[in-house]
C-alpha cells in the first residue's frame, strides 16, 4: 500500500495535473506529445479541435482528482481499480502513438510504471512492508 499510495498516486496526480496545463492550447498539447504542427493547419482553431482539447483537459483533471482521492482513501479496491485504469489508458495511448508513428516511449514508460504498480498492489499488504506475516496470521 505504501509505495502505491505514497509514491505512484501522487506522481500520477502530478502527471495528469501537468497535462491539464499543457493542453490549454493546441501548441502546448503538441509539445507535450512531441509533435510538430503544420503552420497551415486549417483545423487549429476549429470548434472540434478546441472541444477535443477541452475534453482532454477534463479527463486529465478528473484523473488528477481521482488519484488525490486514492491517496486519501483507505480502500484497497479503489486503488486497484484506479491503477488498473491508468495502466490500460497509458497502454492504449502507447499503442495509438506507435500506430501513428509518434513518440511512444514516454507513454510506454508510464504504462510500465503503472503495470509495476498493479503488480505491487496485487501483493497486498505490500512487497515492501515489514508486517506481511503478521497480516496473514490475522486473516
In summary, what is this structure?
The chain is mostly helical. The protein is 74% helix and 0% strand.
What does this protein structure show overall?
With 139 residues, the chain is mainly α. 74% of the residues lie in helices and 0% in strands. It is built from six helices and no strands. The protein has helices at residues 2-22, 26-32, 47-72, 76-99, 105-122, 132-138. Helix 1 runs antiparallel to helix 3 (47-72) and helix 4 (76-99) runs antiparallel to helix 5 (105-122). The longest helix has 26 residues, at 47-72. The radius of gyration is 18 Å and the shape is elongated.
Write the layout of secondary structure elements.
Elements lengths: L1 H21 L3 H7 L14 H26 L3 H24 L5 H18 L9 H7 L1
Helix pairs in contact: 1-3, 4-5
Question: Can you give keywords for this protein?
Answer:
139 residues; mainly alpha; elongated
